[in-house]
Amino acid sequence: MPYHRVLLTGAAGNLGRVLRERLAGRFPVLRLSDVAEMAPADPGEEVVRCDLADADAVTELCRDVDVILHFGGRSTEADWDTVLPANIIGAVNLWEAARKTGVKRIVFASSNHVIGLHSRSERIDHRAMAAPDCRYGLSKAFGEDLAALYAYKHGIAALCIRIGSSYAEPADARQLSTWMSFGDLVRMIDVGLTADYTYEIVYGVSDNSRTFWDNANAERLGYTPRDSADRFIPALAGKTTDDPIAERTQGGSFSSAEFTGDPDALP
Ligand SMILES: NC(=O)c1ccc[n+]([C@@H]2O[C@H](COP(=O)([O-])OP(=O)(O)OC[C@H]3O[C@@H](n4cnc5c(N)ncnc54)[C@H](O)[C@@H]3O)[C@@H](O)[C@H]2O)c1
């Protein structure tokens, strides 16, 4: 791969720790960053503690970096005081630092919660209207639009991966639709690193027969998932909730939390 130094944000997190292990040795230098403490650097690694909300620190973090895997930030719903600095100010700081320091590509861990209020009965693709199901989902929608601005206007290519549920195994009936294995996550990141594109949105999901999403755009770019949640159907199909908004919408419990709207007005 034509990259010397790859920056991974969110390196102390669940996916960051998986990626640190699975990407080890793939690049001359893997720079790992998080606001939280990380294990010390192994050969071929650099460990830099940095708060994404600190613009100057983020500019230093991006120096001499060729490509960024942006996984850092708030990863679940929270109040604005938490979401704003981590995911909105943090994303602005990262893309602006990338522009200043000459980074050419960012692979962005977006989320299915960008479109979480869409109905499960609707099979949507990457062109569906944004319908965030929470403040966290809206911050990821902002990140996608920010990525588009910097891609088209400043030439920083971006692959926005709307990750479904990336865990070792799916945990409930909804995740039979949304699960992405760690192997498929790495395969999608490889697409992000190698495919020829300016700005793209794809769904981060394995080859699940119960998927909510038409992921033709990812396949067009070269993504071929090898895993599927289908073998968990017998164990998990009955693991639903008794919450009608959660069961109706793609975002599940993220949609139903704090819901005070009209269910009949949902997209
Ligand atoms: N795991 C999933 O299924 C899933 C699904 C959709 C999207 N994502 C996205 O993928 C990314 C990683 O997810 P995860 O499950 O590993 O989440 P995680 O919460 O385990 O990791 C996120 C990391 O970001 C760090 N972080 C938070 N605020 C920060 C800040 N201000 N500055 C620097 N670092 C900060 C945290 O310390 C944490 O280590 C997140 O962006 C998340 O939104 C994950």
UniProtKB/TrEMBL annotation:
Statement: the UniProt record of this protein carries the keyword Magnesium: no
Entry keyword set: NAD, Oxidoreductase
Which range is the signal sequence, renumbered to this chain? Answer: none
Keyword Transmembrane in the entry? The reply is no
Location of region: Disordered: 239-267
SUPFAM superfamilies recorded: NAD(P)-binding Rossmann-fold domains
The protein's matches in InterPro entries, at most eight in alphabetical order, are given as:
Epimerase_deHydtase, NAD(P)-bd_dom_sf
Molecular function via GO: oxidoreductase activity
Q: Where is the NAD-dependent epimerase/dehydratase domain?
A: 6-170
In terms of PANTHER family, this protein maps to: 4-EPIMERASE, PUTATIVE (AFU_ORTHOLOGUE AFUA_7G00360)-RELATED, NUCLEOSIDE-DIPHOSPHATE-SUGAR EPIMERASE
Membership in a protein family: Belongs to the NAD(P)-dependent epimerase/dehydratase family.
Q: What is this protein called?
A: NAD(P)-dependent oxidoreductase
Which organism does this record belong to?
Kaistia nematophila
- Species lineage: Bacteria, Pseudomonadati, Pseudomonadota, Alphaproteobacteria, Hyphomicrobiales
